[in-house]
Design goal:
269 residues, alpha+beta, nine-stranded mixed beta sheet, 6 helices, 25% helix
C-alpha cells in the first residue's frame, strides 16, 4: 500500500544542532493551544518509539540501556488506532527509519518525531486524537514530544508519560482516578500537568496537554482509554508492538532492505 501524504502544518528541519532545536521549540510555543479545540472524537491512536542498533556495530559488547539509547541508529515507530469509545482496534503499523539527531535530554522529539510522522503515513486515515508515550506541556520549554507532534500536525494530542521530567506535586490518593496538579515551582507554581492514578495502589502516570486539549479533558480522555492497567491502552499496545518489532529486527527477521518499509495490519476497516 502506498504511503499517504500527511498534513504537516508547521514545518521545520529536524537535522539541526541542539541550540537550533531549542530555538525551534521556543518558536513553536506561539502556535500551541492548551484549550479544547476539537470536534467529535471517533478514532484515537497510541504512538511509541523503540530504538535499535543495526549493522556491524550491533555486534559490539553489550552495553547499558542508556548507552544503547545513545548509540542506536534506527528508530522503530509504532501506531495502534481504535474506534472510540469502544476501543475496537482498527489498524496498526510500524516504520523503521534512520536516526539523524543525537540523544539529548529535552530534545528527544527531534530524534523521535520523524519516525512517528513516517508511521502515521501508513494509516488509512488520520486519527482524531493522538496519545503519546511522552511529555507534552510538562517540559522545560513546554514543548515535549506530545506538544511538538500536536503543533506540527495541528492535531489534538495528549502526553502520557511513565516518569516525571520536571515539576513537583502533593501527595496523591491511592484510589484509581485520583489526580493532583503537577506544578513548576521555578515558574511561580505554574500548573504544567497532572499526576494521575490510573489503577488503585499502583504508581501514577504523568499526563499533560499535548495540543488543542485542556488538562481536565486530557485527564478525562486518558481515563476513558484506560482498561485496568497502569498504562493507558493506546500507548501500552504501541509499546508492546514496538518491542515485538524490535525483537524481530534483532533476530534478523526484518532485513536491512525492510528498514525503510513498514507493516500494516487492518482490523474492522
Amino acid at each position: 500500500m502506498k504511503d499517504k501524504p500527511i498534513g504537516v502544518v508547521h514545518k521545520h528541519r529536524w537535522d539541526v544542532a541542539p541550540a537550533e532545536a531549542r530555538k525551534i521549540q521556543q518558536e513553536l510555543r506561539s502556535h500551541w493551544n492548551g484549550e479544547d479545540a476539537f470536534g467529535a472524537i471517533r478514532t484515537v491512536a497510541g504512538l511509541d518509539d523503540s530504538f535499535v542498533l543495526t549493522g556491524s556495530q550491533a555486534l559490539k559488547k553489550p552495553a547499558s540501556r542508556w548507552t544503547r539509547l545513545r548509540e542506536a541508529n534506527r528508530a522503530i515507530a509504532c501506531v495502534v488506532m481504535y474506534h472510540f469509545p469502544e476501543m475496537e482496534e482498527l489498524q496498526r503499523a510500524y516504520a523503521i527509519v534512520p536516526l539523524n539527531f543525537p540523544y539529548v535530554p529535552g530534545l528527544l522529539s527531534f530524534r523521535e518525531i520523524p519516525a512517528l510522522l513516517a508511521v502515521l503515513r501508513k494509516l488509512q486515515a488520520m486519527p482524531d486524537l493522538l496519545f503519546c508515550d511522552a511529555q507534552g506541556y510538562a517540559h522545560p520549554r513546554r514543548m515535549g514530544l506530545a506538544s511538538h507532534m500536536g503543533v506540527v500536525l495541528n492535531l489534538p494530542t495528549i502526553g502520557c508519560a511513565k516518569s516525571l521530567l520536571i515539576g513537583s506535586h502533593k501527595a496523591l490518593p491511592q484510589k484509581a482516578g485520583s489526580w493532583t496538579p503537577l506544578v513548576d515551582e521555578k515558574a511561580g507554581g505554574e500548573r504544567i500537568g497532572a499526576v494521575l492514578r490510573t489503577r488503585t495502589g499502583v504508581k501514577p502516570i504523568y499526563v499533560s496537554q499535548g495540543h488543542r486539549v485542556s488538562l481536565e479533558t486530557s485527564i478525562r480522555l486518558t481515563l476513558a482509554v484506560t482498561d485496568g492497567y497502569r498504562i493507558p491502552r493506546p500507548t501500552r499496545d504501541a509499546d508492546h508492538f514496538a518491542g515485538e518489532i524490535k525483537r524481530k529486527v534483532l533476530a534478523g527477521q526484518v532485513s536491512e532492505k525492510q528498514i525503510f518499509s513498514s507493516k500494516i495490519s487492518s482490523r474492522g476497516v
